[in-house]
């Protein structure tokens, strides 16, 4: 009888323990939000592919505080377009520390993901989000505003246009080259809208090493395409300059250049 009673008491206690929610034993409330220190309002940076492994900025903040039972505090660096009140925040990085060095590539990727305009100065809002444990009790820091100019993250399949007829001239410096991307959903049609200068030449390059020295080793010129039997727009002729570059003979202005390797046509619209 005693054994039966003991087993009954044990069963009741065990069932009670199992029925309890672990969260019932964690008592914590938000006490003080983290305080963002750097980058301070007024900070400005121009990002570039050449320096992508450099540190763009060190984000620092003072710790968030919570009262009651404690666990690890996780911090997320959030950015958003200025004036949007963080309606669609982008996470730049997360850590349990009180600072984080952001590489140029990391900050640039966050800006691109956030829809910031490439190669233009953008006003960026930044804040710190603290969370107790994995997802509990969020707090948000003060907001600072800085200026950032992101660079374009090119498609791996893109070709490039370089030459006096293009906006960047015969230069690869500072992203001067014009990206010539594949049409989305196609494997053999390249198209770009570019301002072409009348009477000047350019050439198509197949690669880009993203240095100021450029990638001159692999290219397609006018005779390459004419030799394959391409029909080439009448406003593009052989420059006859030793490299058989394309020479643009139309009026200076914005044009749509398309190279269709399936149809074997090069057109300007």
From TrEMBL:
It comes from the Bacteria. Residues 23-129 form the SusE outer membrane protein domain. This is SusE outer membrane protein domain-containing protein. It comes from Flavobacterium salmonis.
């Amino acid at each position: 009888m005693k054994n039966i009673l003991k087993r009954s008491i044990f069963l009741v206690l065990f069932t009670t323990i199992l029925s309890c929610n672990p969260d019932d034993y964690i008592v914590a409330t938000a006490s003080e939000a983290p305080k963002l220190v750097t980058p301070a309002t007024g900070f400005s940076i121009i990002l570039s592919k050449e320096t992508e492994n450099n540190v763009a900025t060190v984000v620092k903040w003072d710790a968030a505080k919570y009262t009651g039972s404690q666990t690890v505090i996780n911090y997320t660096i959030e950015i958003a377009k200025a004036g949007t009140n963080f309606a669609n925040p982008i996470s730049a990085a997360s850590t349990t520390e009180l600072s984080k060095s952001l590489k140029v590539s990391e900050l640039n990727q966050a800006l691109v993901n956030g829809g910031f305009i490439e190669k233009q100065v953008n006003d960026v809002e930044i804040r710190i989000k603290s969370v107790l444990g994995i997802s509990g009790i969020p707090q948000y820091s003060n907001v600072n505003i800085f200026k950032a100019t992101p660079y374009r993250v090119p498609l791996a399949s893109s070709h490039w246009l370089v030459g006096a007829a293009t906006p960047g001239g015969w230069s690869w410096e500072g992203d001067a080259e014009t990206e010539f991307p594949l049409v989305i959903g196609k494997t053999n049609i390249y198209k770009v809208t570019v301002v072409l200068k009348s009477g000047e030449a350019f050439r198509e390059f197949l690669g880009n090493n993203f240095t100021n020295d450029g990638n001159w080793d692999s290219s397609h010129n006018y005779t390459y395409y004419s030799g394959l039997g391409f029909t080439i727009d009448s406003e593009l002729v052989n420059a006859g300059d030793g490299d058989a570059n394309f020479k643009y003979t139309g009026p200076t202005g914005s044009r749509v250049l398309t190279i269709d390797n399936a149809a074997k046509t090069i057109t300007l619209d």
